[in-house]
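ugh finaly. both done.
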Amino acid sequence: MANGTKQQGQDPIKEIIKKLHFSYKFYTRSYPDITHLDETSARAHFANTGIHEKRFCSIYHFFLEKKPEYAGSISIKKFRKHNKVPKHISPLKTCELILSHLSYGCSSKWDATLFRSPTKRSTIGKHGRIHPWAAQFNSPDLKVLEIGSRCVSSQAHWKRFFPDVQYTGIDIIEGENVDLVADAHKLSEYFEKDTFDLVISFAVFEHLAMPWIVAEEVSKILKVGGHVAIETHFSYSEHELPWHFFQFNSTALECMFNEALGFEVIDSGLDSPIVGRFADSAAPHLRGKLVGDLYCHSSIIAQKNKPYTSQQFSWREALPTVVKNTMYPRNTGFSRNWTSPTNT
């Protein structure tokens, strides 16, 4: 009778293990603490410990919990081969990659098909490369101003590229790496004309209420021959609301740091490609459609080559220098195949 009771107590566990398609290789290769177990011990471990700890014992088990409509139809072997997943990646981690692929898409060589338009791409100002570019200016005599210097998502890691400069960091809020609490729209009220050799700003211009005014202020306090390096966002989520006002492509940045303000563009463009599509909650005719030519970052590096004169500068009068030799494309409708008009 005792043996019968014991047998009845084990049967439900055995049924669960069978139902979940227990896989010895999947289970032991997914959890480092049980790689040494033989198959019988692994089954016992799952029954006594794994179920309680909510461990997964098979591909089927993982997707039954995470995305039941795919349970029983997923092949790790095919996914590994197609996406060139290294063999050292565990079965569980591979399942997580597959889930990410099913839920959000997975980066692949096919992404390139979404970036066929002649978008201007940054080179020197490419994301992560502005800092090495600025390293050439490292000198005890160089005066650098950073707009929006407070450590928020990073720790001012760019400083290691030019540690010897005379650095001033400003931000609208006090905090780590902030030397002066100041409004970037009023730079000339804090600093003398022609003070700095280099002005930098990363992930800040989207948070400026009137960034064109800041561009003008930069021209005031930047020396002739000095440089400005700006990186901001083109296609990115709203953040730090309500203080998120603009998104920019590189043409917009060139409009602000324009010839009339004394700037010459050295490099500008978009970087960090994003693959996007319309969500299920979008209008019916848009649902599921892919969106091409999305880029996270937009940047500009420009040099000031003539003095700023307030009496001579006007944004309205600067307009012809901003849009010179261009015209809104005639073949409208999300057309990106702009060509310069020919004189007839």
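ok and the 2nd:
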Amino acid sequence: MPLLDFQCNKCGIKFDELVYSSQMDKVRCPECQSRDIKRIYEGKCYFGMLGGLSDSGGCSGKSCSGCSGCGH
């Protein structure tokens, strides 16, 4: 389940949410409960930072340098 970044078009708050792509239409703003949201890309990279979960298809060797994310 990916951690995705969103911004509410109603109140402007940015937030992240653990959500399957099939459940994207159910995501609501945590501040105003609006469904008028858009997905944004903040350039974060969590692969390789999860210890034992690093073999889940993320950056090899716990390094994100190849994914143009955080540069970890």
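summary for the 2nd one i guess: The chain has no helices and three strands.
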